[in-house]
Amino acid sequence: MDDDAHDWSLLPLDLLRLLGEKLELPHRIVFRTVCKSWCSALPSVSVPYPWLLLPAQQIDDSCTFLPLPSDNEHHSYFKFSPVPPLYGMCYAGSNGGWVAIVDLAFHVSLLNPLTSAQIDLPSLLHLFPGESLPNCGGYRFYKTDGNSYFNDFETCRDYHLKKVIFSSNPTPNNYMAMVICNGFPSAYTKAGISKWISLDFSMRDLIYYNGLFYALMGPSYIIAIDLSGDDPIKRVFIDDDIEFFDSLPICEYHYHYLAFSSTGELFLILRRAEYVYLDPDDDDDDDPIKHETIGFMVFKYNCDSSYYWDEVRCLGNKSIFVGMNNAYLLSIEDFAGLEANCIYFTDTWEGSRCNADKGRSNLDIGIFNLEPKKFQRYCLPYEITLPPPIWFIPSM
């Protein structure tokens, strides 16, 4: 063995404990993953609830995490490095301790921000019929009618890419991923495939659960997609497409999310949002000043119900996390500090783009309590426009 090589696992446990206790929370998590002796030197790390992963600032390319305070009086955010360069990347999805990041050239990677592990996926660019014009700073896309349009690189990525959903605990030799595109069919890729393969349909939302992808095709029409074989296998999971909007208050926009509980119960979350205008009575004023969520409704799948879906007014000891992530339904018993019967939400791309254009740094982020139907809004610790933050659960 080289004289300079050392077996760091043989360090005294007392010394390891003294060193580990001086580390910030994300460093403590990484410390415990080095080896068995390092793990045993520190007690298990208590994660209060999922963190927000904030966009990287130009002058500081490290990860910034924000555990939302329950009293909204302070912000105990912290930075963590080293990680691959994140400035200019968009967060397109997250599942557990992994995040999907996409650059301006539509290159996709799965990143574990705490370990710096990175899995490179194929580029998404070939899904969109067009050409790159570097000298002009953007892409020209072609429509089926023969016409074309031009957008800068960032606008193209932010507009055409809606969400990347991927399998749990991915490795370079074992992962599956699907993407929802705006204006184009969805697509999939997996380990061993060198490109994204376009599908013949679009979807409203997508979630990965227990080895399968579940796609929301209409208001409540859901198919299950199995990517484990040579070709995708699709089967109808819920074939009755209930139009919920007839019973909802009139508003301009709706967003849909699917979420599974740990016991396999399926939930459908409807998010109501609207653009707020300076003077609603002025017909000439069509310039919105902000985009804001105004309410949520939650439904639980019930195969014995004539309508298949029962409205949920109380989640019991659970809460839901929605945004660009693989939606989470978590129990307050497993995550200290989590408020029960709440929906934790972060901004959408559409909302953050509108608010960024209006110079608003406080995005549409907060908590909605289902029983009193009240909002608790959050302000972030520093100015953020794009991309919107994303929910992240540290891998223990």
From TrEMBL:
InterPro entries per record: F-box_dom, KIB1-4_b-propeller
Domain F-box: start-end pairs: 8-45
Name of the molecule in the record: DUF295 domain-containing protein
Chain ranges passing through the membrane: none
UniProt domain KIB1-4 beta-propeller: residue ranges: 81-369
Organism from which the protein derives: Zingiber officinale
